[in-house]
């Protein structure tokens, strides 16, 4: 009598062949409205990408500590984030503290999307290039000159300016090159300057993952 073959043991927890791992991305924003609403509006396939956007209302030091806490918590639960970003303004944060924030983020493998002086610079770059100093109180008036009635609590800001995004990307990269070419200080210390375009570029890459299938 032929001996029956042993049944293959089922491996629990293994995903079916061909399944795609869901990427997790964390964006921790300094302000509780404008930047949070903007990043929440990106057309990401939520079946493929899990994006958590937190509007904390914290200062830069507390913001980074919160991002580090979230990172360690996710690692401990074996559900690590593929990307962690901190979004914050320069404001009147002391220069030494501001520079230390970038060093701490780099040491913890956390990326930074900064704006000097304010996040609204990113919106303004959708309409024009500028490399002369501007105060945070001046952004709303500048945006109004270009036909955008800016409201920090506007949940549709992404939709209103998305058609100009490529211009903003080009202007932000040009501005970063401007400060790098001067070579006197890191780009993030220049006023105006921003690294928001790098996070936008990453979100666009993630958005394309879902549309490619």
Short synopsis of the structure:
With 213 residues, the chain is an alpha/beta fold.
- Strand numbers in spatial order across the main sheet: 2-1-3-4-5
Number of domains: 1
Report the count of strand segments.
5
Mean pLDDT equals: 88
Could you give a short account of the major beta sheet?
5 strands, mixed
Query: Helix content range of the residues, please?
Result: 40-55%
| Number of DSSP helical runs | 8
- Stretches where pLDDT is under 50 for at least 5 consecutive residues are 4-20
From the alpha-carbon coordinates, what is the Rg to the nearest angstrom?
21 Å
Order of helices and strands: EHEHEHEHHHHEH
How far the N terminus sits from the C terminus, by CA atoms, comes to: 50 Å
Strand content: 5-15%
What order do the helices and strands come in, and which of them pair?
Blueprint: E1 23-29, H1 34-40, E2 49-55, H2 60-76, E3 83-89, H3 95-107, E4 111-116, H4 120-124, H5 139-145, H6 157-161, H7 165-182, E5 193-194, H8 196-211
């Amino acid at each position: 009598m032929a001996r029956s073959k042993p049944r293959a043991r089922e491996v629990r927890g293994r995903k079916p062949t061909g399944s795609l791992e869901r990427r997790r991305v964390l964006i921790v924003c300094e302000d509780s409205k404008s930047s949070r609403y903007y990043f929440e509006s990106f057309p990401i396939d939520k079946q493929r990408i899990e994006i958590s956007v937190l509007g904390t209302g914290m200062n830069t030091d507390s913001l980074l500590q919160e991002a580090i806490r979230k990172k360690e918590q996710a690692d401990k639960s074996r559900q690590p984030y593929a990307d962690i970003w901190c979004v914050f303004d320069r404001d009147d944060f002391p220069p030494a503290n501001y520079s230390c924030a970038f060093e701490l983020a780099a040491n913890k493998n956390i990326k930074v999307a900064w704006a000097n002086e304010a996040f609204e610079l990113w919106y303004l770059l959708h309409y024009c290039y500028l490399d002369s100093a501007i105060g945070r109180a001046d952004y709303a008036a500048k945006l109004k000159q270009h036909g955008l009635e800016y409201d920090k609590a506007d949940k549709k800001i992404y939709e209103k300016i998305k058609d100009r995004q490529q211009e903003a990307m080009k202007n932000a990269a040009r501005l970063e090159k401007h400060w790098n070419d001067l070579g006197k200080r890191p780009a993030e210390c220049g006023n105006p300057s921003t690294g928001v375009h790098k996070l936008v570029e990453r979100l666009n890459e993630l958005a394309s993952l879902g549309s490619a299938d």
